[in-house]
Amino acid sequence: MRSVQVRRFGDPDGLEVVEVAEPAPGEDQVLVATEATGVGGVDAVIRRGTIGGLGFSPGFVPGSEVAGTVVSVGAGVDPTWVGRRVWAFTGTGGGYTERALARLEDVVPLPEGLGAVAAVTLGSAVPVARFALAHGHAAPGGSVLVRGAAGSLGIAAVELAVRAGAAAVAVTTSSPARGERLRALGATHVLDRRGAGDGPAAYDLVVDVVGGPDLPDFLDRLAPNGRHVLVGVVGGMPPADFGARLLAAFRQSRSFSTFSLDTVARADLRAARAEALDAAARGELHAVVHDVLPLEAAAQAHRRMDEGSVFGRIVLVP
Ligand SMILES: NC(=O)c1ccc[n+]([C@@H]2O[C@H](COP(=O)([O-])OP(=O)(O)OC[C@H]3O[C@@H](n4cnc5c(N)ncnc54)[C@H](OP(=O)(O)O)[C@@H]3O)[C@@H](O)[C@H]2O)c1
């Protein structure tokens, strides 16, 4: 079977399609014949190899979510799973491949009417956005800023914040055209990447996909008791002394936190994934698909990610 591996960390040319043996599912695992696999921002972050300490080595298969049909199951898994169409989280890596392994607890049946491409656009992004908003105590009537809103995670955060009754949902993005697309998805204010533009003076909650050197400037934008929740670092790591900005505003009772799905109970996560896919099947959430490309075009997909031209998600189909 064909898999895409990072042969060399750095530019997208380090991604290569290789022929590898089909794996056998282990205990409590299923093997999925991949119909679609999502290209997430984290895949590009890992491939660039610019953030140290992540511990990945050449041969790493990027991608973390697939949708397709279960073709075999390991010990301890009910064999009636074989033949079912599912969405599956493969872990950090293991997605860009024709046959993907996943633990049964990370597998959700695909609801009727939801395609594989839409499923891998929403299956991870919506739960991350949902739990991050909850972690940041998003409340009806509050003001939310989604930083890095033009990716699948940010788009999900915008749609969910609007649905949860936020009074203002501001976004940062790199162009007015992208801003218009985010307005069509419910954003009320569009700011540039630095946060300049016409928006609320202060935010109750910032959901931040970007991190990077500008993060401290956004801590300054928090309202009293405001929360900044960092869910991604597509812009790199923030400066080491960023906490000084919170301390400088000591009397504002602001808080900063990371948020990772790793801290969500597996049963809650599974339920949230199923709910996300059901909501998508009902048309309540939008799968914003930038492009659908063959598996062989993984390097091209990553090049587009690096150029910053992607709005929503690129999906690879073997
Ligand atoms: N916390 C968790 O449990 C969890 C789970 C899964 C994934 N993640 C994280 O989520 C992130 C990926 O999300 P995604 O796929 O939605 O992101 P993405 O598509 O890679 O990026 C989102 C947007 O951020 C903006 N951006 C990119 N580089 C930037 C920079 N240097 N400065 C400012 N803005 C920049 C771009 O929009 P504009 O050009 O319009 O500005 C881009 O479209 C990864 O960091 C991943 O680790 C977290």
UniProtKB/TrEMBL annotation:
<dbReference type="InterPro" id="IPR011032">
    <property type="entry name" value="GroES-like_sf"/>
</dbReference>
<feature type="domain" description="Enoyl reductase (ER)">
    <location>
        <begin position="10"/>
        <end position="316"/>
    </location>
</feature>
<dbReference type="InterPro" id="IPR013154">
    <property type="entry name" value="ADH-like_N"/>
</dbReference>
<dbReference type="InterPro" id="IPR036291">
    <property type="entry name" value="NAD(P)-bd_dom_sf"/>
</dbReference>
<keyword id="KW-0521">NADP</keyword>
<dbReference type="InterPro" id="IPR051603">
    <property type="entry name" value="Zinc-ADH_QOR/CCCR"/>
</dbReference>
<dbReference type="Pfam" id="PF08240">
    <property type="entry name" value="ADH_N"/>
</dbReference>
<protein>
    <submittedName>
        <fullName>NADPH:quinone reductase</fullName>
    </submittedName>
</protein>
<dbReference type="Pfam" id="PF13602">
    <property type="entry name" value="ADH_zinc_N_2"/>
</dbReference>
<dbReference type="GO" id="GO:0016491">
    <property type="term" value="F:oxidoreductase activity"/>
</dbReference>
<dbReference type="InterPro" id="IPR020843">
    <property type="entry name" value="ER"/>
</dbReference>
